[in-house]
Design brief:
The structure holds two protein chains of two kinds. By secondary structure, chain A is of the alpha/beta class. In chain A, strand 4 and strand 5 form a beta hairpin. Chain B is α/β, with parallel strands linked by helices. Chain B has three domains: 162 residues, Rossmann fold; 65 residues; 35 residues, no CATH class. Chain B is 39% helix and 24% strand. Chain B is built from ten helices and ten strands. In chain B, the strands form two sheets. A six-stranded mixed sheet of chain B has the order 6-7-8-3-9-10, sandwiched between helices. A four-stranded antiparallel sheet of chain B has the order 2-1-4-5, with helices on one face. Classes of the chains: A alpha/beta, B alpha/beta. At the A-B interface, helix 8, helix 9, helix 19, helix 20 and helix 21 of A face helix 2, strand 6, helix 3, helix 5 and helix 6 of B.
Chain lengths: 583, 278
């Protein structure tokens, strides 16, 4: 898993800031330009020398576009362009007010509720739920009835109504970061809570709040225009909603009176939403489509002799992305696994060992593809196999045991269901037969009480038990080849020893071949027949386990073996406190 | 030579976590240990043994429900947040996961300067010290302006170590500091920790699940099993000739990179298991 994460992040973070990612998104740029133009118009309108938006001149009513009135006049003879821009001022200011109120209420309460939890969290949640249950429009109508037709009061109240969505997003983000080790480290450094929130927590909250703000602003604009359209706001102030109202009354006389305010409202809300989406993509870093595109495998002509009948890999090359973005992570890997043989694939993180294993499974992460080489399983070429047949092969022919057992079990289903489901789907067993087989398997992998484990949820069992369950699931289809990716790394040593015993017994019983990915030479010595050592995407040495461990020929293998700390080396001797800068 | 007094003394420590619905879980049931100045005490155990919890209790990050912790003769079992800030100068930590222990949005320089600025250093002094720290953990000086994600796991752990030694502490809690690292990196980071201990005289409480790693760095070793100490003694004895059956099982379970030796261990371990030591 380690390598996949590193190479994927490397591909994603290569010289890309959030801003430059945003600038490369055409929709994002277009919506930002539209918004900037609208805001500029609204800000600059007093200096444009346009006619007063409020001055009615009935002699000039309903005129078409002219040099004096660029967009014509309305039924009272007021200049449409001037009203449109002054309206933009009101609508944008209203949206900003609502947004500010929402953020001012939602952000601090969300921070405190998320960071401290406890009674404040309960109280804040209660108020939030109450607030969300209120019918917003009814509240706004009531406010209008009590406080009069002021746009500012109604938008401030609307801001309060919007605050739960800020509160919730902030609270969730803070709860996520509160458990991070760097927050603990800050606490150990002596930082007070206020500093920790200010320095370490707010940065995490920033992106989601910015994104949410764009959405909330568009909602605020739509709601404000709606209120104005219904005539609930101060009619003497020019606004998009009231222009729309007026335009509707004259729609048969001059349809353009509807067009302009609709365009204003539509363009602004649309631009806000699209900009919000673009910012989400940029800030949350969804990989661009170029890096997940894959190409075609280049065939090679490999001689048939010397190739194993079970699994044979020749000149495997694995890449991420295509064209200029292509990043090759595995080069010229050739290996064979014979029936009943355990081949250890050893290397450090980034060596390409997991990538090689995933290629055989046909489960490379998004953007990963086999750019060259030949993979043969029982004489069948895997690189040209259609995905559907590939899928059939997994489970029945090739099985997989992952590194993190608990992450690979679905927490919301019982273990029994997760074990019997594939048996019923892939092998067409009846419910009863599948259950019997699953219980058999659970007993076989050394689970003391199979019935109880069958009924349990994944969180109710330990990591070692979970790994046994996954091994039981993997061997359920009687596979010929088992691919185990660091199957014991997440386990305690005593459990690791038992799981290795289990794998050894299963191998002897069924004669399946095993491709074991590991970084631990102890595990290799324990279970492997042959070893392939990988470094930076290449195999540097292959051989029998004894040869490699006792007289490695490659310098890298020697370095790895020398780095092993075991129970024979010298120990340190305590000679009393040493003089140092601390004492 | 008289034995120097203990720097850290933990007596009958009990830690109890409160779960949902008032359920309680006692993670530590009365553990006592002591660390002398400049000494490394290794704390070994499997998951659920409470080894990490002891470290967190010393740091004030775990709920202590019994016993006492004494640092340099002073009771620090329950200290206020302000006193804890003072203790930050003396007790520091290196966590296991170098990926989540550094704030991804802060530069390495800011991460290292933060504890110094809190203690009232001026910006100039703090950033000068940061350059010195980077040098001491063998990172290039330009690392200061870069973000954690630009570094490998081993380099990030060096940053975390630099942050821990920034204030010149007398005790560093090392919570599985090399477990997430590759073999070769692991060895180099351990060398760095030993080198820093020799030059600063800081004591380490070194938590790990790996007997080999603990043997390499510790003067004395304590073995924990489900919140209790099962064996305590000199590093060589505990890690090579363990006396308690549990430690023996731990010892025999750790695979070695020698096929014949590993086969012998496997046999031995199975014998232990059939004898029913569990």
């Amino acid at each position: 898993m380690s390598l996949i994460t590193t190479s994927v992040t490397r591909a994603r973070t290569r010289g890309q800031g959030a801003t430059s990612r945003l600038l490369r998104n055409p929709l994002g740029v277009a919506s930002a330009v539209v918004l900037v133009l609208i805001v500029l118009g609204a800000v600059a309108v007093p200096f444009l020398g346009l006619p007063d938006p409020g001055v009615a001149d009935l002699r000039e009513a309903l005129q078409a576009s002219s040099t004096e009135h660029l967009l014509g006049t309305d039924s009272s003879g007021r200049d449409v362009l001037s009203r449109l821009l002054w309206g933009a001022r009101i609508n944008l200011a209203g949206a900003v007010l609502a947004l500010m109120v929402a953020v001012l209420i939602g952000l601090p309460t969300g921070l405190v509720a998320g960071y401290y939890g406890g009674w404040f969290d309960s109280v804040a949640n209660w108020f939030t739920n109450l607030n969300m249950a209120l019918p917003g429009i009814v509240v706004l109508l009531a406010v209008r009835a009590v406080a009069g037709p002021s746009v500012w009061i109604s938008m401030a109240v609307f801001g309060v109504l919007l605050s739960p969505s800020v509160f919730r997003i902030v609270r969730a983000a803070v709860q996520g970061v509160r458990g991070e080790l760097y927050v603990d480290a800050a606490r150990v450094s002596g930082l007070g809570d206020a500093r920790i929130i200010g320095r370490h927590v707010v940065t995490v909250v920033r992106a989601p709040v910015i994104i949410q703000s764009a959405r909330l602003a568009s909602i605020a604009i739509a709601i404000q225009a709606g209120l104005e359209f219904l005539g609930l706001s101060d009619a003497s102030v020019p606004s998009w909603g009231s222009m729309l109202n007026e335009g509707f009354r004259r729609i048969f006389v001059n349809p353009s009176l509807v067009l302009w305010p609709s365009l204003g409202i539509g363009l602004t809300t649309m631009a806000l939403i699209l900009l919000g989406n673009a910012m989400r993509d940029a800030l949350e870093d969804r990989g661009s489509s170029a890096s997940v595109r894959t190409g075609r495998t280049e065939r090679i002509d490999a001689a048939d002799e010397g190739r194993s009948s079970l699994l044979s890999v020749r000149d495997l090359e694995v890449s991420y992305g295509i064209g200029d973005a292509k990043n090759t992570v595995v080069f010229d890997v050739s290996l064979d696994v014979a029936p009943g043989e355990v081949l250890g694939l050893v290397g450090e993180s980034g060596s390409g060992k997991s990538q090689t294993a995933f290629s055989v499974l046909g489960l490379l992460p998004d953007g990963g593809w086999i750019s060259r080489g030949s993979l043969r399983f029982e004489g069948m070429e895997l690189t040209t196999l259609p995905p559907q047949q590939r899928r059939k092969l997994r489970g029945a022919g090739i099985a997989y045991v992952p590194q993190e057992p608990l992450n690979n079990l679905d927490p919301s289903y019982r273990i029994g269901y997760q074990l019997t489901e594939p048996l019923r789907m892939a092998m067409g067993m009846s419910r009863q037969a599948a259950k019997e087989r699953a219980l058999d398997l659970l007993a076989r992998v050394g689970i003391p009480d199979p019935e109880a484990t069958f009924r349990a949820y994944p969180h109710e069992i330990s990591g070692g038990m979970a790994q046994r369950v996954l091994i039981a699931g993997a061997v359920a289809g009687k596979p010929k080849l088992l691919i185990a990716d660091e199957p014991t790394t997440a386990l305690d040593v005593t459990v690791q020893a038992e799981v290795l015993d289990l794998l050894r017994d299963l191998r002897t019983e069924s004669g399946m071949g095993v491709l074991l990915v590991t970084h631990n030479f102890g595990v290799v010595a324990d279970i492997c027949d042959r070893v392939a050592v990988m470094q930076s995407g290449r195999i540097v040495e292959t051989g029998g386990v004894q040869d490699i461990l006792e007289c490695p020929s490659h310098v890298y293998t020697r370095t790895l073996l020398d780095s092993m700390l075991d129970d024979s080396g010298d120990v340190r001797v305590y000679t009393g406190p040493t003089e140092g800068e601390a004492s | 030579m008289t034995a120097p007094a203990s720097l850290l003394k933990v007596e009958d420590l009990e830690v109890t976590y409160k779960g949902r619905g008032g359920r309680k879980f006692q993670a530590i049931n009365g553990v006592s240990l002591a660390i002398r100045p400049g000494e490394t005490v290794g704390l070994v155990g499997e998951s659920g043994s409470g080894k990490t919890t002891i470290g967190r209790a010393v740091l004030g990050l775990a709920p202590i429900t019994g016993g006492r912790i004494e640092f340099d003769g002073r009771d620090i079992t329950h200290v206020s947040t302000r006193e804890r800030r003072g203790l930050a100068r003396d007790i520091q930590v290196v966590f296991q996961d170098p990926y989540t222990s550094l704030n991804p949005s802060m530069t390495v320089g800011d991460i290292l300067a933060e504890p110094l600025l809190i203690q009232g250093w001026t910006r100039r002094d703090a950033y000068a010290r940061v350059r010195d720290l980077l040098d001491r953990v063998h990172l290039p000086a330009d690392a200061s302006s870069r973000l954690p994600r630009e570094f490998s796991g081993g380099q990030r752990q060096r940053v975390a170590i630099a942050r821990a030694v920034a204030l010149g502490p007398r005790l560093i809690i090392c919570d599985e500091p090399v477990s997430a690292l590759d073999l070769t990196t692991q060895a180099r980071v351990l060398e760095l920790l030993i080198e820093l201990q020799e030059s600063t005289g800081a004591a380490y409480l070194f938590v790990s699940h790996d007997l080999g790693v603990v043997r390499h760095i510790s003067h004395r070793v304590t073995v924990l099993y489900r919140g209790d100490i099962v064996e305590q003694g000199e590093a060589d004895q505990v890690t090579a000739r363990p006396e308690h059956p549990y430690t023996q099982r731990l010892f025999m379970s750790a695979p070695v990179s020698d096929v014949a030796e590993q086969k012998a261990r496997r046999r031995h371990r199975r014998q232990l298991a059939t004898r029913g030591d569990r």
